[in-house]
């Protein structure tokens, strides 16, 4: 009974769109490292395979109307990249496992999505262009109902190298545009009285990122170390809805609307990373990314490995 009462307002249903779109955006954004969008040196071979894995934890602060929530996500991406006519082209596939809980409540939500996508990048003198397109699908379990999520993501970046030889630094101001769509079908919980009738959801988001990244290269024999840091501001032009109108199975025809904490319109993003190249075949990198907004806190770690052939 206590778990049913915790789910009565359906807050996790209302926040599902914003939560999933945020974590999908993070999972696809890791791929931009494969296009060398923000690296000072670019000795990429004709072909390589890569593996990216990472984890993220987030916290949304309650607003007095909706409870605070905590999220956790893990992702794995395996892909292959090649170079053709000056373009870096690649395909990839992987998974995203996601979860969300409400503070002080026995209410939880989980998702397991498979992901497929492709990317393209090109260097035109000091200017670098890149784009990622991805599709994700899988079950989302919320309370007493399971739904199948379908989502697509398009991310584009443009940056320009500015080399400072005396300082041994390479700076890159960059702009990014992200477009996303998520659909969730309607569902009916099994409890004949306290169960919820949940409508279908179709959520869109669009945002722009303005950032500055700095890289420093340290050569050590056949090894190359790249230390990097970045700071940027993301502005959301269109936010996923934070409200959802539902009904109880036992009280049909009497709808009510519940709200989750609305996603932040402006978020500060920062990152730190180190990359090691051992000769021309193996590359390893570790990076941290943090997000800070009015009601959003998120921290993520990513590990990448690639092998040239």
Keywords:
309 residues; mainly beta; 12-stranded antiparallel beta barrel; 4-stranded antiparallel beta sheet; 8% helix; 67% strand
Given as residue ranges, the uncertain stretches (5+ residues, pLDDT < 50) are 1-8, 38-43
Largest sheet, in brief, is: 12 strands, antiparallel, barrel
Helix-strand category: mainly beta
Proportion of helical residues: under 10%
What is the tally of helical segments? 2
Tertiary shape: elongated
Strand content: over 45%
Let me know the number of strands.
17
The largest beta-sheet arranges its strands as 1-2-3-4-5-6-8-11-12-15-16-17
What is the chain-wise order of helices and strands?
A: HHEEEEEEEEEEEEEEEEE
Query: Mean of the pLDDT scores?
Result: 86
Structural summary, described in words:
With 309 residues, the chain is mainly β. It has 2 helices and 17 strands. The strands form 2 sheets. Strands 1-2-3-4-5-6-8-11-12-15-16-17 form a 12-stranded antiparallel β-barrel. It has a 4-stranded antiparallel β-sheet with strand order 9-10-13-14. The model is unreliable at 1-8 and 38-43 (pLDDT under 50).
């Amino acid at each position: 009974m206590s778990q049913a009462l915790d789910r009565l307002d359906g807050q996790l249903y209302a926040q599902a769109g914003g939560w999933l779109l945020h974590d999908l955006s993070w999972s696809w954004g890791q791929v931009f490292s494969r296009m060398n969008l923000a690296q000072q040196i670019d000795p990429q071979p004709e072909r390589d395979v890569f593996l990216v894995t990472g984890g993220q934890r987030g916290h949304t602060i309650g607003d007095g109307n909706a409870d605070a929530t905590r999220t956790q996500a893990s992702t794995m991406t395996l892909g292959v990249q090649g170079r053709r006519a000056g373009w870096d082209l690649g395909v990839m596939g992987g998974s995203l496992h996601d979860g969300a809980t409400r503070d002080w409540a026995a209410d939880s939500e989980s998702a397991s999505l498979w992901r497929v996508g492709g990317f393209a990048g090109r260097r035109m003198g000091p200017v670098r262009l890149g784009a990622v397109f991805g599709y994700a699908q899988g079950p989302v379990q919320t309370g007493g109902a399971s739904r199948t999520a379908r989502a697509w993501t398009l991310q584009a970046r443009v940056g320009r190298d500015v080399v400072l030889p005396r300082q041994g630094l390479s700076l890159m101001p960059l702009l990014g545009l992200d477009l996303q769509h998520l659909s969730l079908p309607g569902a009916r919980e099994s409890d004949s009285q306290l169960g919820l009738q949940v409508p279908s959801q179709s959520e869109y988001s669009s945002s722009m990122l303005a950032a500055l990244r700095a890289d420093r290269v340290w050569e050590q024999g056949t090894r190359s170390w790249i230390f990097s840091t970045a700071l940027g501001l993301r502005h959301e032009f269109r936010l996923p809805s934070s409200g959802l109108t539902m009904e109880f199975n036992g009280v049909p025809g009497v709808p009510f609307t519940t709200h989750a904490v609305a996603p932040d319109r402006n978020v500060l993003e920062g990152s730190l990373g180190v990359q090691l190249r051992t000769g021309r075949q193996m590359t390893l990198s570790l990076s941290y990314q943090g997000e800070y907004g009015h009601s959003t806190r998120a921290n993520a770690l990513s590990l990448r490995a690639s092998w040239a052939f």
